[in-house]
Amino acid sequence: HNGDDRAAQIPRYVRVNTLIWTSDHAMDAFISNGYNLMDPFTSSRGFAKDEHIPNLLLFSPQTTFHDDPVYKSGKIILQDKASCFPAVVLSPPSREDVYVIDATAAPGNKTSHLSAIMGNKGKLFAFERDRKRFKTLQMMLSKAGCQNVEALNLDFLTVDPQDAAYRKVTHILLDPSCSGSGIVNRLDHLLETEEESKSEKDERLTKLAAFQLVMIKHAMKFPAVKRIVYSTCSVHAMENEHVVRDALKSEEAESSGFKLESLENVLPQWKRRGLPDEMDNPGDAASLIRCSPGGDATNGFFVSCFVRRDRNTTNDQ
Ligand code: SAM
After folding, report:
1. SAM-dependent MTase RsmB/NOP-type domain location, by residue (predicted)?
2. Which fold has domain 83-308?
3. Residue ranges for the chain with pLDDT beneath 50
4. CATH architecture of 3-78
């Protein structure tokens, strides 16, 4: 498989931004513009509704929308299907008293998705430590019509969980920097360079994994948090199952009472799950989501969800 082969298996995904549009209006508009409800792999003007993610449409892989007014106006977001999973799994309720953190937000695809799921209600704090990427985030949020978001150019690890501002935060999305090894590049550039030796690669992944674990443990310290989604666009167990396994064993998980969310609340319809052999308790892998690059018509991706024990973990709480 080279990048091009796999890219050809991935449709162009279009998430309808329900903050300013509806799927019904979007579908009518696409049909008026010459698209048809047909298999996007057999017809270049075909499009379809995704079977797992609400408000997500699939077009033929060659379709481009970058110059389309519906893209420029923020009515659609170009976002791979796999990267829609985290916000859907976190699924914060749409209510004024709901407080959420997106800990690593830029460029903001998942932030605007969360904002849409929240129906622009409540409060969504979006942290981004990189100055330049923060600017991109701000632009993206304003274009997408997100009004319940407060974007802050901060390192999440410097945010004090005891700060009164975050006392009511119940949901945290954590999509930190990773190796990006799951990304199927349409230009066939390999992200993992072939010159890198095995030990160099191991060292790089070890560092990333240590950082990812620290981020999860920090999220677990927020006093009211009851649901944390951790995701990566990596295919490596070191950044995925191993990080989750170590987070579950951490003092923070122990003292705050975090465990893995059960399968029925983590997109049970999705068939590809975590790798059992990479977990201490192989049964835990069922509640983890994996996406195989190309193989699932998505990029490579990983999603996990921690919930606080002894609390009502249903989404309407
Ligand atoms: N969730 C984003 C989206 O869907 O558009 C993508 C996030 S990207 C994988 C990770 C981001 O986290 C990068 O922009 C990086 O600069 C930022 N980041 C890394 N460490 C951070 C930290 N400690 N605090 C805040 N942001 C951080």
Report:
1. 2-309
2. Rossmann fold (3.40.50)
3. 1, 311-317
4. 2-Layer Sandwich (3.30)
